[in-house]
Amino acid sequence: MTTADEIIEYMEAQRDDVQRGVLMRFFKTGRGEYGEGDEFLGLKVPQTREVVKAAKDTPLGEIPTLLMSRWHEVRLCGLLLLVAQFERLATKRLENDHDAITRRDDIVSLYLKYADQANNWDLVDLSAPKILGHWLLLPTRLAGGTEKGKRQVLDALASSTCLWRQRMSMVCTWKTTQQGDPSWCLRYAEIHLHHPHDLMHKAVGWMLREMGKRVSMPLLRDFLHQHAHEMPRTALRYAIEKMPEAERRQWMG
């Protein structure tokens, strides 16, 4: 499989109406819910990943058709193909390769152009850290090729009116945290601290928890000393999840 039409035809042939109903309930597709109107084929994520393996050589120009699909799983397939292609171009050997930089930038540009199509939390969480988050750590010609320019890209996502773009700006910091840099996480946790949506409360708390676990618990505690009194309870509960029980009770109190 190397064309979008072939991929879509193959995935549609695997439709499972029983699993479809389960997924539509799980991803809140009802009226007034955050996933309102989304449509599913009923494929589980491992099934979609198998399609990605089989279609790994799909040209970049075919992927927008996948991203614009009505089917949630087909959009996920398109996003995971971008992830796979980006990761192949981001190995240590290729970090500073001029052609690899250009091709990585092309993937990031495409991802940002179609960001609204990653319109549920799983689509964001399975793609943003491995594309945007990894891009933050690598040489680029986008945004002036500077850290300031990269920050402006994420700031634009954070200031968007689209919940999913906002979540991208937060969860992509998982990758920078894994590499020992807490600055991105702390910046966007502060920006989103008073976000009205529960999905952002969870994202903020999750990323803070990972920052504390992987970089510095004292740094997490410093953040909480400044902001615990104003944080949504869900964000705070997620952030302290790995702390000892007695300390968690103190923070929640």
Tell me the layout of helices and strands.
Layout: H1 4-12, H2 17-26, H3 45-54, H4 63-67, H5 72-88, H6 98-113, H7 121-125, H8 128-135, H9 147-158, H10 163-171, H11 173-178, H12 183-191, H13 198-214, H14 217-227, H15 233-239, H16 245-252
Structure in a nutshell:
This protein is 63% helix and 0% strand. It has helices at 4-12, 17-26, 45-54, 63-67, 72-88, 98-113, 121-125, 128-135, 147-158, 163-171, 173-178, 183-191, 198-214, 217-227, 233-239, 245-252.
Question: What value does the average pLDDT take?
Answer: 95
Largest sheet: none
Compute the number of strand runs.
Answer: 0
Order of helices and strands: HHHHHHHHHHHHHHHH
Q: Please tell me what the overall shape is.
A: globular
Class per helix and strand makeup: mainly alpha
Low-confidence stretches: none
Radius of gyration using CA atoms only: 19 Å
Overall helicity = 55-70%
Strand content: under 5%
Q: How large is the count of helical segments?
A: 16
How far apart the termini lie comes to: 55 Å
What would your notes on this structure say?
It contains 16 helices and no strands. It is mostly helical. Helix 10 (163-171) packs parallel to helix 13 (198-214) and helix 13 (198-214) runs antiparallel to helix 14 (217-227). The longest helix has 17 residues, at 72-88. The radius of gyration is 19 Å and the shape is globular. The chain starts with a helix and ends with a helix. 40% of the residues are buried.
